[in-house]
Amino acid sequence: MCPAPLENNQLNLHESNGENGNGYGWFNNAIPDSPSSSPGSSRAASPMMFQSFEATLSEKLKARLESKDKFYSLEFFPPRTKAGATNLISRFDRMRAGNPLFIDVTWHPAGNPAGDSETSSMMIAHAAVEYVGMESMLHMTCYGSSKEEIKSYLNKAKDLGIRNILALRGDLPNIDATWEIDPEKLNFATDLVKFIREHFDDYFTICVAGYPTGHPEAESYEMDLIRTKEKVDAGADFIITQLFFKASTFKKFVDDCRAIGITCPIIPGIMPVQSYDSLRHIVKLSKLSVPEEMKEIIEPLKDNDDAIRNYGIHLATNMIRDLFQSGYAPGIHFYTLNREVATTAILKQVGLWKNEMKKPLPWRLSADPNRTEEEIRPIFWTNRSKSYVYRTRHWDEFPNGRWGTSDSPAFGELKDYYLFYLASQSPKNELLEMWGKDLKSEEDVWGVFTRYITGELNEGGVKIRRTPWNDDELSGETALIKDQLAKVNQQGILTINSQPSANCVPSSDPVLGWGGSNGYIFQKAYLEFFTCEENVLAILQILGRFPGVNFQVVNKSGSVNVTNIKGKKPVAVTWGVFPGAEIKQPTVVDPIAFDHWKTEAFGLWTAQWAALYEADSQSRKIITDISENYYLVNLIDNDFPQGNCLWQVLDEMSSRRKLNEMTDLSQSLAGWVQVQRKNSLYY
Questions:
Q1: Which of 10, 290, 325, 618 has the greatest count of CB atoms below 10 A from its CB?
Q2: Average pLDDT over residues 63-71
């Protein structure tokens, strides 16, 4: 396969870098030949290896151990408020960029951990799996719960796509309570592991806790080792340890575990010291002793959190390097305390942070095992993948191979734009700083869109990092055409989605690449935007000179909904060709799905932007008027080998609109569409 010559208006694409495979047995049939780190390296393996969610966490751990690729995982606890839950999901999004192998979410019996609220352990873990696309493990304690309750918790976790459990006994409800064994209930972690295996076989990967200095309630360190072996023998797949302060403590624990026949992976739990008070609190809960040499350093710094955090980063970094170099630790589990600065700093220092995430598909995958066969999505939700997953969460099957017919797609309605996993990452005051506290005209709105594209600061000196239709900064792919996008946004073509054309781009390309090695990527240029009726009419009037362009135009009410795609059949706009595999078509433009998307797209004007302002304000009126009167348009340039003619289309639109205004042409958009339908040109 040879790339076609580049046209003048086609992208200047990157050279391909060679990639070498490494034998992950379970992965070979999924995506061929992905790179990995060299044996013994502390650099994380290619994210490509572990962005497929077909393999279980146990299989992924085994693959990492066999290849000696180091990894890390992160622990979080559920917050107390809905705002805290929204912030935590935002943190998941940021931490996902570094490619953790998995995260886990703690279980607090007093806080209804299996409930449906946004602050429950179950829903936080579910949101991480379903909407963030992270392999997630749910803590579960058994003390005080009946077998029926535990079974219902596990069934619910399974239904929500959670397939990893950290099985724990749990603590007494209060410190003065007396420990009592109830033969009708599960009393120990070993009982919980056995129960899971008995009722769910191998569906769940099971982790158990290990205590490098012995459990504080154990008769002795040696007896606690025996209890740990019982948990593993009952069916646990791996161990994560309690925190410790010296590498030698973990090394001794591993040696002792191996001596009594424990052969499963043992992952050290590391808690970076972040403040004097948090250290005291954790030590009190875990009943650990802080080494004297640590006390001598920390005590004089107890009122300086920055100094203590820097010391904690230094201490954890050195300990991790020791454990990696000595071969005792296959990876690291971080107790983050729901913070990210210290953990991220340590990961970067030890070479585990890996932010060049190669994608199996061009959109973010859900980690829900029910969606592992999903291969195709409409392009409209590219920047709102969480919303798409939410609206299709009840589907029994997901498109695989081809999008197929969508005569009656069952897209669920999006009634609540503020579900904690769909809400904006920015608070109201920050959004106002970006989008304008006092809008004077539609042109002010155009400026917001333009500055989002260019990265220029607004009049208040604030960078616009997101819009209602994109909660992230500009992607690398969009940046390739940002100059053209900025130009059209200045003219009131308010773009919310786009992709450049690509012809035979290597799948290893750092910007446009996805999928396995030695493949080639193709894309049709795509543009989606809001604009006024005058612009839409001018576009439709000149499109006859561009026979390779498909379009669809809709308004908020749906009274105008017109396309030149005959039969309203889906149009593939991205595909990949890979050795020994069928052609993949992961994104399509589907006119029927666009009908469902338009409700959400128009709704975001009012739900996330107009709602920031007082009800009778000029700012709210401007946004509401745009929502009511603008049209949503998508354009596809099917002649991808020639580059991208859509910019020429919009230039011609401007010329035709000027002509319309000069000749006082009063023809309405509805009238124009009616004539074209009579001529069987529009559908």
A1: 10
A2: 94
Q: What is the pLDDT of residue 426?
A: 80
- 3-class DSSP assignment, residue 634: strand
> Domain total for the chain?
2
What pLDDT shows up at residue 405?
Answer: 52
Q: How far apart, in whole angstroms, are the C-alpha atoms of residue 415 and residue 401?
A: 31
If asked whether residues 484 and 338 sit together in one domain, one would say no
**397 is an active site residue:** no
What are the C-alpha distances in Å from 606 to residues 37, 428, 595?
A: 48, 14, 18
With respect to residue 368, please indicate whether it lies within any of the assigned structural domains.
no
Same domain, 325 and 386: no
pLDDT at 558: 92
For 34, 359, 457, 518, the CA distances from 52, given in Å and listed in that order, are 12, 9, 38, 18
Whether 462 and 586 map to the same domain: the answer is yes
Region 591-603 average pLDDT: 94
Is residue 176, in this structure, part of any structural domain at all? yes
Average pLDDT of the chain to the nearest whole number: 86
Mark which of 349, 364, 393 sits at the end of a domain: 349
Structural element, H or E, at residue 40: none
Rounded Cα–Cα distance for residues 272 and 270 (Å):
6
Average pLDDT over residues 331-340: 94
- How do residues 375-431 score in pLDDT, each as one tens digit? 999 999 999 999 999 888 888 777 766 565 544 446 666 655 545 566 666 889 999
Tell which residue, 340, 293, 336, 379, has the closest CA to residue 589. 379
Q: Are 251 and 342 within one domain? A: yes
Q: Are residues 107 and 234 in the same domain?
A: yes
My answer on whether 248 and 380 are in the same domain is no
> If we measure between CA atoms, which residue out of 106, 185, 115 comes closest to residue 139?
106
**The pLDDT value given to residue 643:** 87
Give the domain range for residue 95: 37-349
Per-residue CA distances from 326 to 17, 40, 160, 260, 329 (Å):
33, 10, 39, 21, 8
The pTM of this model reads: 0.81
From the candidates 19, 75, 118, 340, give the one annotated as an active-site residue.
75
Pure H helices in 234-328: 247-259, 276-286, 292-298, 305-325
